[in-house]
Input
Amino acid sequence: MDIIKRCLLSACLLLLAACEGMPTSGAARDMMLSDYGAAIRWSEFEKAQDYIDPAIRQQQPLSELETERLKQLKVTGYEVKTRDVAADGSIMQTVEIRVVNINTQIERIVTDRQTWRRDATGKQYWLVSGLPDFSAR
Output
């Protein structure tokens, strides 16, 4: 009986070691996208910025003016319209965001086309398209 327990324990340990190097699972990826969506939905733009690729964040940091403009917005809706996962694991996602300027109380709909890529380890996704463009262009 001891030998069976040892074999089962060894098999479990091998399975755990093998899973450690696996890329982000679909459920983990979906949870990460959901967490980013929640940050945007609750107008927590500083938190949402943590999902942006660190290299892009360093090259294009939010200016003080941009940060102040974001503070004038209240997100009232966030709906994923399309999501495509490419063969290389990158994700293209189109999201409809409803946003109200708290000064004018005018609601606008912004279409955000997001591009997410996996890092070299395959364990983390980074937003490479940046925060949504809420400017009225």
About this structure: The domain at 25-127 is CATH 3.10.450.50 (Nuclear Transport Factor 2; Chain: A,). The first strand starts at residue 73 and ends at 85. The chain has one domain: 25-127.
